[in-house]
Amino acid sequence: MKTRRSRRGFTLIEMVMTVLIIGILTVGAAYLMPQVLKNTFYLPNQVQADTAAASALEIMVEGDKEAFGLRFSENITTASGNTVAFTDQNGVAMQFRLDASGMLYRKIGSGAEAVIPYFMPADMTFAGAGGSLFTYYDAANGVTAVVADIRRVDINLIAQVGTGSFDKMEGRSQQSTSIKVNKYS
C-alpha cells in the first residue's frame, strides 16, 4: 500500500486572505503612526506648559515657602492689567508682574524681583487672556480699576512653548482662577 505524502503549503485563497489582512493592518498602522509620533513629541511640551501654568497660579494664589499669595492679601495697593501689588496679612508688601517678554515676576518686600515658577523653561512664555493677566471686580461684580473697591481678582494665565501650535508639536495651556480679596478695618 502506497501512502501519499501530504503537501504542506498555502492554497490560493489562504494566500489572498493573508495578503488582504496584512494590507488592512498596514493601512491602519500608516494612519496611526503619525499620530503616535506627534503625541510622543507634543505631549512633553504640553505637560510642561500645564505644569508651569499650574505652578505659577499656585504661587500667585496660595504662595509658597517664601511668601503668601493673593489669598492672604490684606489690601490691594496697585492694580493694572499685568501687575498687582498688595500687602499680605503679615504686613509684607508683595507684587506680581507680567512683563512684555512673557516673564512672570514676584517681588517680596524690598527684595529683587524673581521669575516664577523657578523652573521656568527658556522657551516658555506667559501671557494674559486678552492681553490682561488680572481683572478686578468690586462688591457688585462690576469690573473696576479703583484699588479701594477691589473685592475679587481674576487671573487668566496662558503658558506656551514656542507658539503653542499642535502642528509644530508645541504646548499651550490656559488656566484661570478667582480670588476673593478680604478687606480688614
Mean pLDDT: 86
H/E element string?
HEEEEEEEEE
Shape: rod-shaped
Low-confidence stretches: none
Individual helix count: 1
C-alpha termini separation: 115 Å
The count of domains is: 1
Q: Report the count of strand segments.
A: 9
Sheet-strand content, in percent, reads: 25-35%
Strand ordering within the main sheet: 1-2-3-4-5
Q: Using the CA coordinates, give the radius of gyration.
A: 28 Å
Largest sheet, in brief, is:
5 strands, antiparallel
Helix content: 25-40%
Class derived from helix and strand content? alpha+beta
Describe the structure.
The chain contains one helix and nine strands, in the order H-E-E-E-E-E-E-E-E-E. Helix content is 27%, strand content 29%. It has one helix spanning 12-61; strands spanning 73-79, 83-88, 93-98, 104-108, 114-115, 124-128, 134-137, 152-161, 172-180. A hairpin with a 5-residue loop joins strand 3 and strand 4 (104-108). The chain has one domain (25-180). It has a five-stranded antiparallel beta sheet with strand order 1-2-3-4-5, with no helix packed on it. Strands 6, 7, 8 and 9 form a four-stranded antiparallel beta sheet that branches. It is an alpha+beta fold.
SSE arrangement:
Elements: H1 12-61, E1 73-79, E2 83-88, E3 93-98, E4 104-108, E5 114-115, E6 124-128, E7 134-137, E8 152-161, E9 172-180
Quick rundown:
The protein has 185 residues and is of the alpha+beta class.
List keywords for this structure.
alpha+beta; 185 residues; 5-stranded antiparallel β-sheet; 4-stranded antiparallel β-sheet; rod-shaped; 1 helix
